[in-house]
Amino acid sequence: MPEEERKDMPTSVLKNDITKPNVRTTTFTIDGRERPANLAGETCTCAVIHSENFSLHYGSKAGVQNITMDIYPCSVTAIIGPSGCGKSTFLRSINRMNDLIPHVHTEGKLLVDGHDIYDKHTNLVNLRQQVGMVFQKPNPFPKSIFDNVAYGPSLQGVRNKGELQNVVEQSLRAAALWEEVKDDLKKSALALSGGQQQRLCIARALATKPRVLLMDEPCSALDPIATGRIEDLMHQLQSTYTIVIVTHNMQQAARVSERAAFFCLGELIEYDWTSKIFSNPAKKETEDYVTGRFG
Amino acid sequence: MMNDGNVTLTLTPAADSPRPLVLTPGQDLRGYLAALLGRAFLFFLTFSSVLAVMLILVFVVIRSLGFLSSSSLMEFLASQSWRPTADPPVFGALAIIVGSLYVSLAALVFAVPLGILAAVFLSDMVSWKVRNVVKPIVEILAAIPSVAYGFFAVLVLAPWLQREFGFSTGTNALNASLILAVMALPTIISVAEDSISALGRELREASYSCGATRMETLLRVVIPAAHSGIIAAVVLGMMRAIGETMVVWMASGNAPQIPHPWWDLAQSVRTLTATIAGEMGEAPETSLHRGALFAMGVLLLLMTLGMNIVSEYFLARAKKAGGKA
């Protein structure tokens, strides 16, 4: 993103250090585990998401209200908050998944790479190719493992068998599933375990070559071992993707994310470095929530 | 939302003497007998309908045995000549068997694409509210008496076909299969729509999130995932068509012949059901003719039984797939 555009973006909720991810060179530790800082000066092609007074209503019921935040490329941003606070609603707004729900209307702006995605001329197919999504419940298609991963590329017009095989292999490798399934790609995806299915869904999302990866509580249906594998995966993916994860699990948010946003009752309460949110939050509500005194 | 810790409990355990936890021998026996009686009663109710099916099957088979043992089964299945009142009588049912399959399959050719498209439309294109109004109306189509459809076929459709297309007769295979298609539609739409909407939003969201359009989602994910339910819907529609009597009797023209050329729907045909219904009254009680009609009944039973098994198999698969997805 060009420097002059970045200057124009509002930073109302953001502390100034959060806007410059690439100058941070220190590492910090949470739960005894060292988190690497972003590599300085690394060029990154992933998208920037910019939300400005964005609100979404289901009929007369408010989903999220006046969300103003920037989500930075090449990093993991966690959205935390109590149930029904609009975390998922906001996440699903970023690839317009909420369009499937009747009577939804939006206000304000939500920009992906500077383009207002709620503009009526938005190409939804291209948007969703660039903003991939992993859902709470693993939802593979009742097709073979190969066909699941090849679905996105084939929609984009890839017909060449060798090319498809290549994409499928790369995606499954990226999702750390290749070694487990390489011998039976023809097997039904429904025969896989829950954790494998979720990694398959990640591979399927990666196969469309997105620049943003939205994850809606991707580990809530998984055991700790499968969760650990997916968290490792996110560490590996964060240098090349903009990852936004919604999670109920605060340890998870602390482990995987660089920045964290705390949502409550449809509003953004606080958005800062994850280390700061968990160690020294600015708002009382945030502190109550992250220390478990909330609700 | 913070717990203030000042909640007073108003519910307490019952203070009076607790009821005994051990049954007396009398209570034990009474409970056992009551359970046995209830179980026997429900078993009898359930079994009586199974028994009815069994008795029908046995009755029809027994009544056809006389014909099947004294007459050539080969002639019955391979000859096209049906002359039960000639001397000697000829009982060649091939043309009639083919006629039955012919109008049923032709009806499916009309009804299946239409039914699946309507099911997809109801499940994915219109709002839940509209679907909940339209679907019961479609299902009412199944409640219209078949003789009313027959009237429509003879008095409206037949003259219209004759006038518009210049057919020599309006009561022909086309007329019968069009009406059968309309009669099979509610079954096909209802069962297919159930299985398509049972797939849930997750699967569709997965497809949209990969950058699929609605058409791609429907053609490449939704319909393939619901194929078991759709096949079951088609087989159920076929059963409805092949067992239907009144409409084909009134609309098909009742000529026991195989259309020539085979695709010529404008010719009259006759079906198994219409033959049984039409000739049962004229066939003397113990005659070969009566036996031949019962043999046709056995054939029909076998066909619908086979289709029923097929549809049960696919419905069970659809249920399993729906639960997993």
The CATH superfamily label of the domain at 95-277 and 302-324 in chain B reads MetI-like
The CATH architecture term of chain A is 3-Layer(aba) Sandwich
In round numbers, the mean pLDDT of chain B is 88
Order of helices and strands of chain B: HHEEHHHHHHHHHH
Question: Reading side by side through the largest sheet of chain B, how are the strands ordered?
Answer: 1-2
**What shape does the CA trace of chain B take?**
flat
Radius of gyration of chain B: 28 Å
Largest interface: A-B, 29 and 25 residues
Report the radius of gyration of chain A as a whole number of Å.
19 Å
In total, the number of domains of chain A comes to 1
Strand order, sheet with most strands of chain A: 8-9-10-5-11-12
- Under CATH at level 1, the class of chain A stands as Alpha Beta
Instruction: Count helical runs of chain A.
Output: 11
N/C terminus separation of chain A: 41 Å
Biggest beta sheet attributes of chain A: 6 strands, mixed
What would your notes on this structure say?
Chain A has a single domain (3-142, 211-290), classed as Rossmann fold. In chain A, helix 8 (224-237) links the parallel strand 9 (212-216) and strand 10 (242-246). In chain A, helix 4 crosses helix 5, helix 4 (145-155) runs parallel beside helix 7 and helix 5 (161-174) crosses helix 7 (194-207). Residues 1-43 of chain A have low confidence and may be disordered. Chain A contains 11 helices and 12 strands. Chain A is α/β, with parallel strands linked by helices and 295 residues long. In chain A, the strands form 3 sheets. A 6-stranded mixed β-sheet of chain A has the order 8-9-10-5-11-12, with helices on both faces. A 4-stranded antiparallel β-sheet of chain A has the order 4-3-6-7, covered by helices on one side. Chain B contains 12 helices and 2 strands; from the N terminus they run H-H-E-E-H-H-H-H-H-H-H-H-H-H. With 325 residues, chain B is mainly α. A two-stranded antiparallel sheet of chain B has the order 1-2. Chain B is flat, with a radius of gyration of 28 Å. In chain B, a hairpin with a 6-residue loop joins strand 1 and strand 2 (90-91). Chain A binds chain B through residues 95, 97, 100, 102, 125-126, 128-129, 132-133, 135, 137, 139-143, 151-152, 155-156, 190, 201, 204-205, 208, 293-295, and chain B through 1-2, 127-128, 201-213, 216, 220-221, 224-225, 321, 324-325.
